[in-house]
Amino acid sequence: MTDRATHPEGTGRNHPVLWTSNLTKTFFLGRTIYAVKDVNIAVGPAEFAAVVGPSGCGKSTLLGLLGGLDRPVSGDVVLDGQRYSELNENGLALLRRRKIGFVFQFFNLISHLSALENVMLPMRFTGKPSRACRTKAEQLLKIVGLAERKTHLPLQMSGGEQQRVAIARALANDPALVLADEPTGNLDTRTGGEMIHLFERLNRDMGQTFVVVSHDPKLAEVADVVFRMKDGEIVESTRNARGAERRPRGDEHGR
User: Per the domain annotation, does 5 fall within a domain?
Assistant: First the structure.
Protein backbone atom coordinates (compact mmCIF):
# COMPACT_ATOMS: atom_id res chain seq x y z
CA MET A 1 0.00 0.00 0.00
CA THR A 2 1.00 3.63 -0.41
CA ASP A 3 2.16 6.21 2.12
CA ARG A 4 -0.23 6.87 4.96
CA ALA A 5 -2.31 10.02 4.68
CA THR A 6 -2.01 12.95 7.04
CA HIS A 7 -5.01 13.06 9.34
CA PRO A 8 -7.12 16.15 10.06
CA GLU A 9 -6.21 17.77 13.34
CA GLY A 10 -8.39 17.81 16.41
CA THR A 11 -10.85 15.08 15.44
CA GLY A 12 -11.96 11.92 17.20
CA ARG A 13 -10.23 10.38 20.19
CA ASN A 14 -6.56 10.71 19.27
CA HIS A 15 -6.23 10.29 15.49
CA PRO A 16 -9.30 9.40 13.41
CA VAL A 17 -9.64 5.88 12.09
CA LEU A 18 -11.83 7.14 9.25
CA TRP A 19 -12.13 10.53 7.64
CA THR A 20 -13.38 12.03 4.40
CA SER A 21 -12.38 15.07 2.40
CA ASN A 22 -15.05 16.87 0.35
CA LEU A 23 -16.56 13.51 -0.61
CA THR A 24 -18.96 13.86 -3.54
CA LYS A 25 -21.02 11.39 -5.59
CA THR A 26 -23.35 12.40 -8.42
CA PHE A 27 -25.76 10.67 -10.78
CA PHE A 28 -27.17 12.00 -14.02
CA LEU A 29 -30.91 11.50 -14.43
CA GLY A 30 -31.73 14.17 -16.98
CA ARG A 31 -29.86 16.51 -14.64
CA THR A 32 -27.03 16.12 -12.16
CA ILE A 33 -28.19 14.71 -8.84
CA TYR A 34 -25.91 15.03 -5.82
CA ALA A 35 -26.33 11.83 -3.82
CA VAL A 36 -23.42 12.86 -1.58
CA LYS A 37 -22.08 16.42 -1.62
CA ASP A 38 -18.89 17.75 -0.02
CA VAL A 39 -19.05 15.43 2.99
CA ASN A 40 -16.33 15.91 5.59
CA ILE A 41 -16.54 13.62 8.60
CA ALA A 42 -14.08 12.01 11.00
CA VAL A 43 -14.56 9.00 13.27
CA GLY A 44 -12.09 8.33 16.05
CA PRO A 45 -10.81 4.99 17.35
CA ALA A 46 -13.48 2.97 19.19
CA GLU A 47 -16.16 5.53 18.38
CA PHE A 48 -19.76 4.63 17.58
CA ALA A 49 -20.98 6.94 14.81
CA ALA A 50 -24.54 7.07 13.49
CA VAL A 51 -25.60 8.56 10.16
CA VAL A 52 -29.28 9.51 10.22
CA GLY A 53 -31.70 11.26 7.91
CA PRO A 54 -34.81 10.75 5.78
CA SER A 55 -35.07 8.15 3.02
CA GLY A 56 -33.26 9.22 -0.12
CA CYS A 57 -30.93 11.65 1.63
CA GLY A 58 -27.79 9.75 0.60
CA LYS A 59 -27.02 7.69 3.72
CA SER A 60 -26.58 4.34 1.98
CA THR A 61 -24.64 5.94 -0.88
CA LEU A 62 -22.29 7.46 1.68
CA LEU A 63 -21.87 4.10 3.37
CA GLY A 64 -20.98 2.51 0.02
CA LEU A 65 -18.29 5.15 -0.48
CA LEU A 66 -16.91 4.66 3.05
CA GLY A 67 -16.76 0.92 2.42
CA GLY A 68 -14.94 1.24 -0.90
CA LEU A 69 -17.88 -0.37 -2.71
CA ASP A 70 -18.32 2.69 -4.92
CA ARG A 71 -16.09 5.48 -6.17
CA PRO A 72 -16.74 9.20 -5.64
CA VAL A 73 -16.62 11.72 -8.48
CA SER A 74 -14.42 13.89 -6.26
CA GLY A 75 -13.01 13.95 -2.77
CA ASP A 76 -11.50 11.05 -0.86
CA VAL A 77 -11.91 8.56 1.98
CA VAL A 78 -9.05 7.68 4.33
CA LEU A 79 -9.20 4.56 6.50
CA ASP A 80 -6.41 3.70 8.93
CA GLY A 81 -4.14 6.12 7.06
CA GLN A 82 -4.85 4.71 3.58
CA ARG A 83 -6.36 6.95 0.90
CA TYR A 84 -8.87 5.10 -1.26
CA SER A 85 -7.95 7.25 -4.27
CA GLU A 86 -4.49 5.68 -4.28
CA LEU A 87 -5.85 2.13 -4.62
CA ASN A 88 -6.93 0.26 -7.74
CA GLU A 89 -9.87 -2.17 -7.60
CA ASN A 90 -7.69 -5.04 -6.35
CA GLY A 91 -6.24 -2.80 -3.67
CA LEU A 92 -9.70 -1.74 -2.55
CA ALA A 93 -10.79 -5.38 -2.39
CA LEU A 94 -7.81 -6.20 -0.15
CA LEU A 95 -8.58 -3.21 2.07
CA ARG A 96 -12.21 -4.30 2.45
CA ARG A 97 -11.10 -7.83 3.29
CA ARG A 98 -8.58 -6.78 5.90
CA LYS A 99 -9.94 -3.55 7.35
CA ILE A 100 -13.75 -3.42 7.02
CA GLY A 101 -16.62 -5.52 8.30
CA PHE A 102 -20.08 -5.13 6.75
CA VAL A 103 -23.51 -5.67 8.31
CA PHE A 104 -26.50 -5.48 5.95
CA GLN A 105 -30.21 -4.96 6.53
CA PHE A 106 -31.09 -8.32 4.96
CA PHE A 107 -28.21 -10.24 6.61
CA ASN A 108 -26.70 -11.60 3.33
CA LEU A 109 -25.78 -14.96 4.85
CA ILE A 110 -24.89 -17.90 2.61
CA SER A 111 -28.00 -20.07 2.79
CA HIS A 112 -26.29 -23.48 2.54
CA LEU A 113 -23.65 -22.69 5.16
CA SER A 114 -24.14 -23.04 8.91
CA ALA A 115 -23.78 -20.11 11.28
CA LEU A 116 -20.25 -21.27 12.08
CA GLU A 117 -19.31 -21.63 8.41
CA ASN A 118 -20.70 -18.18 7.58
CA VAL A 119 -18.53 -16.59 10.25
CA MET A 120 -15.47 -18.59 9.16
CA LEU A 121 -15.81 -17.52 5.52
CA PRO A 122 -14.08 -14.08 5.66
CA MET A 123 -11.14 -15.61 7.50
CA ARG A 124 -10.71 -18.35 4.90
CA PHE A 125 -10.16 -15.68 2.24
CA THR A 126 -7.16 -14.40 4.21
CA GLY A 127 -5.47 -17.82 4.19
CA LYS A 128 -5.91 -18.34 7.92
CA PRO A 129 -5.62 -22.03 8.94
CA SER A 130 -8.94 -23.85 9.15
CA ARG A 131 -8.59 -24.73 12.83
CA ALA A 132 -7.83 -21.12 13.74
CA CYS A 133 -10.84 -19.97 11.67
CA ARG A 134 -13.10 -22.38 13.52
CA THR A 135 -11.82 -21.38 16.94
CA LYS A 136 -12.25 -17.67 16.22
CA ALA A 137 -15.73 -18.19 14.73
CA GLU A 138 -16.85 -20.16 17.80
CA GLN A 139 -15.57 -17.36 20.05
CA LEU A 140 -17.46 -14.73 18.07
CA LEU A 141 -20.69 -16.73 18.05
CA LYS A 142 -20.38 -17.04 21.83
CA ILE A 143 -19.90 -13.27 22.12
CA VAL A 144 -23.11 -12.59 20.15
CA GLY A 145 -25.02 -15.22 22.13
CA LEU A 146 -25.30 -17.96 19.51
CA ALA A 147 -22.87 -20.62 20.70
CA GLU A 148 -25.67 -23.19 20.79
CA ARG A 149 -26.84 -22.37 17.25
CA LYS A 150 -23.54 -22.72 15.43
CA THR A 151 -24.62 -25.72 13.32
CA HIS A 152 -27.92 -24.19 12.22
CA LEU A 153 -28.54 -22.93 8.68
CA PRO A 154 -29.86 -19.38 8.17
CA LEU A 155 -33.40 -20.58 7.41
CA GLN A 156 -33.41 -22.42 10.74
CA MET A 157 -32.79 -19.16 12.61
CA SER A 158 -34.92 -16.13 13.39
CA GLY A 159 -34.20 -12.74 11.83
CA GLY A 160 -32.51 -11.56 15.01
CA GLU A 161 -30.34 -14.66 15.13
CA GLN A 162 -29.34 -14.23 11.49
CA GLN A 163 -28.35 -10.63 12.18
CA ARG A 164 -26.22 -11.77 15.12
CA VAL A 165 -24.43 -14.19 12.81
CA ALA A 166 -23.91 -11.35 10.34
CA ILE A 167 -22.41 -9.19 13.10
CA ALA A 168 -20.08 -12.00 14.16
CA ARG A 169 -19.04 -12.43 10.52
CA ALA A 170 -18.29 -8.69 10.28
CA LEU A 171 -15.90 -9.01 13.23
CA ALA A 172 -14.10 -12.09 11.90
CA ASN A 173 -10.96 -10.37 10.59
CA ASP A 174 -10.61 -7.86 13.46
CA PRO A 175 -11.57 -4.93 11.21
CA ALA A 176 -10.53 -1.36 11.85
CA LEU A 177 -14.11 -0.38 11.00
CA VAL A 178 -17.54 -2.01 10.90
CA LEU A 179 -20.13 -0.45 8.60
CA ALA A 180 -23.80 -1.30 9.15
CA ASP A 181 -26.62 -0.33 6.76
CA GLU A 182 -30.02 -0.23 8.51
CA PRO A 183 -29.14 -3.22 10.74
CA THR A 184 -32.48 -3.02 12.58
CA GLY A 185 -34.59 -2.22 9.53
CA ASN A 186 -35.74 -5.81 8.90
CA LEU A 187 -36.38 -6.65 12.56
CA ASP A 188 -39.30 -6.12 14.92
CA THR A 189 -39.04 -3.44 17.61
CA ARG A 190 -37.95 -5.77 20.42
CA THR A 191 -35.34 -7.59 18.34
CA GLY A 192 -34.12 -4.30 16.88
CA GLY A 193 -33.58 -3.02 20.42
CA GLU A 194 -31.55 -6.13 21.21
CA MET A 195 -29.36 -5.46 18.17
CA ILE A 196 -28.75 -1.89 19.29
CA HIS A 197 -27.65 -3.11 22.72
CA LEU A 198 -25.37 -5.65 21.06
CA PHE A 199 -23.69 -2.97 18.93
CA GLU A 200 -23.30 -0.81 22.03
CA ARG A 201 -21.77 -3.69 24.00
CA LEU A 202 -19.32 -4.61 21.24
CA ASN A 203 -18.28 -0.98 20.98
CA ARG A 204 -17.87 -0.65 24.74
CA ASP A 205 -16.27 -4.00 25.57
CA MET A 206 -14.22 -4.68 22.42
CA GLY A 207 -13.40 -1.12 21.42
CA GLN A 208 -14.84 -1.74 17.96
CA THR A 209 -15.31 1.30 15.73
CA PHE A 210 -18.75 1.47 14.11
CA VAL A 211 -20.43 3.65 11.50
CA VAL A 212 -24.12 2.78 11.33
CA VAL A 213 -26.73 4.14 8.93
CA SER A 214 -30.21 4.03 10.42
CA HIS A 215 -33.69 5.53 10.61
CA ASP A 216 -33.93 4.26 14.20
CA PRO A 217 -33.73 7.18 16.68
CA LYS A 218 -32.82 4.74 19.48
CA LEU A 219 -29.61 3.85 17.67
CA ALA A 220 -28.65 7.53 17.44
CA GLU A 221 -29.18 7.84 21.19
CA VAL A 222 -26.40 5.35 21.99
CA ALA A 223 -23.91 6.73 19.45
CA ASP A 224 -20.92 8.88 20.37
CA VAL A 225 -21.41 11.12 17.36
CA VAL A 226 -24.44 11.59 15.12
CA PHE A 227 -24.16 12.90 11.55
CA ARG A 228 -27.48 14.16 10.15
CA MET A 229 -27.87 14.09 6.38
CA LYS A 230 -30.23 16.00 4.12
CA ASP A 231 -30.10 16.12 0.33
CA GLY A 232 -26.67 14.50 0.25
CA GLU A 233 -25.04 16.85 2.75
CA ILE A 234 -24.11 16.58 6.40
CA VAL A 235 -26.22 19.36 7.90
CA GLU A 236 -25.45 18.69 11.56
CA SER A 237 -22.87 16.84 13.63
CA THR A 238 -23.71 16.19 17.28
CA ARG A 239 -21.51 14.62 19.92
CA ASN A 240 -23.53 12.89 22.63
CA ALA A 241 -22.65 13.16 26.33
CA ARG A 242 -22.16 9.39 26.32
CA GLY A 243 -19.14 9.80 24.05
CA ALA A 244 -17.63 12.64 26.06
CA GLU A 245 -17.74 10.61 29.25
CA ARG A 246 -16.11 7.47 27.88
CA ARG A 247 -12.40 6.77 28.17
CA PRO A 248 -10.28 6.03 25.07
CA ARG A 249 -9.89 2.35 24.32
CA GLY A 250 -6.68 0.38 24.24
CA ASP A 251 -5.58 -1.48 21.13
CA GLU A 252 -7.53 -4.65 21.88
CA HIS A 253 -7.37 -5.93 18.32
CA GLY A 254 -3.71 -5.20 17.78
CA ARG A 255 -4.49 -2.58 15.17
Answer: no
